[in-house]
Give the backbone structure.
Amino acid sequence: MELGLAGRRALVTGAGKGIGRSVVRALHAAGVHVVALSRTRADLDSLVRECPGVEPLCVDLADWEATERALSGIGPVDLLVNNAAVALLQPFLEVTKEAFDKSFEVNLRSVVQVSQIVAQSLINRGIPGSIVNVSSQASQRALTNHSVYCSTKGAMDMLTKVMALELGPHKIRVNAVNPTVVMTPMGRANWSDPQKAKSMLDRIPLGQFAEIEHVVDSILFLLSDRSGMTTGSTLPVDGGFLVT
Ligand code: NAP
């Protein structure tokens, strides 16, 4: 399916590794000018070597002021992928203030901040836009040791809906994708134990984890005009996990 994204300008957060990095590769291949935001400089350097023309932006999204400064010079953007997140897993009774604050700063607060900047610029320019928030199946199901992570993603699903409500009149669509486990660096850190992986696989009707491409394809569809009447949705990319 031709998505017609060539010539557009996109900002992707968490672009250094995993899903975000693959989204940048796919958008770059589709002729999109991409601003790739991430925290580790070396990841961005190698990404720019791989995808010449991609504009790197190195900033820690947990730092509100630094993020504001970094984004002040990015020029017009009409597609945004809020992908950066941390998964700091702790039993509920051992949740620390540090893990709680860092999780909400990166996984939710930065989504508000970056989206405000991008949406305000779109509105000022009178341009339609599309925002995709990378949520998780964990937004809608309880998972052991995931109390804070699940909470950030549950909040992200509702943020997606309210943003869709308020930004719709400005022709800015806002959707989420909700993947199951994907074997990125984050996925490997949390799901490599075969017993733990089996307990999750047993709950997935299709019996497998998602490949990065499954998530990337859904994100590109939601960014494109092919999903032009879809806003406020939370699209499962979960092999059916959420139907159980
Ligand atoms: P990943 O492999 O850990 O990659 C995350 C990327 O985000 C890294 O490049 C990381 O940079 C960057 N990042 C993290 N914190 C940042 C910060 N404070 N400022 C700027 N960049 C930051 O994660 P992933 O698996 O690709 O996950 C991508 C998205 O998918 C996340 O929203 C995640 O919650 C969601 N998701 C993942 C899975 C899964 O199983 N993998 C399942 C469902 C949903 P550094 O490495 O330099 O920190």
Summary: The two ends are 31 Å apart (CA to CA).
